């Protein structure tokens, strides 16, 4: 299998999947990711970051690791249990809200403009800076309240902090590895708000950010962990950045 690929992209893409009770979703998302990377002949690995899920997610992750090859740095199929530094890191949800089919567009945009970060956006219909896509971004499956919370969160941060990124609260992103390390070291908030803080910090540090329109589909299995506490923390986080950046 290895020898049939002669790819010009020599980078490695490390996908980080945070999981909490994703036993049902993990095998399918890993399969979809594997297919995308194989199809595009890219070197890849998946790192599952599980927080002691009671539903047995870790056992499923271990089974997948033995199926796909644990921690081996094979050219096309490896599944690591610890963070090993690929050249680029993709962070995305494991519940299909973020579809792997968008990853090749992230990679093309990164390459075309030598970007530090590419983020998925639900709130633009064309890629930024230049690459145009036919499919507009959007959200499917959320009720009006959740849509308003998301729009409100973006509006608040955009108005107060002006980072010039249309979807600050999304978490489907590709980072150049050293850039991710740098931003994480600067980021202080915990919970949902850190997605927004990472992007605001990145812009303040002068990193380049491109956007690819994505459709966000709400999960079918399991529940979201967004609650009222997170909304309050988010508003506090925007205020802290407004007064401190
Ligand atoms: N390791 C770990 N993973 C977690 C935890 N809580 C959630 N996750 C994982 O993080 C991903 C997103 O969690 P959800 O609970 O599904 O989030 P959501 O409400 O759908 O929110 C999504 O959209 C928001 C934007 O509107 C994003 O801000 C958020 O990051 C996420 O992408 C999933 O893969 C889930 O298993 C945790 O405590 N620990
Ligand atoms: Mg979700």
TrEMBL record:
It is an enzyme of class 2 (transferase). GO terms for molecular function: dolichyl-phosphate beta-D-mannosyltransferase activity; metal ion binding. This is Dolichol-phosphate mannosyltransferase subunit 1. One of its GO terms (biological process) is GPI anchor biosynthetic process. It is found in: Endoplasmic reticulum. It catalyses: a di-trans,poly-cis-dolichyl phosphate + GDP-alpha-D-mannose = a di-trans,poly-cis-dolichyl beta-D-mannosyl phosphate + GDP. It comes from Mycena venus. The keyword Manganese applies. InterPro entries: DPM1-like, Glyco_trans_2-like, Nucleotide-diphossugar_trans.
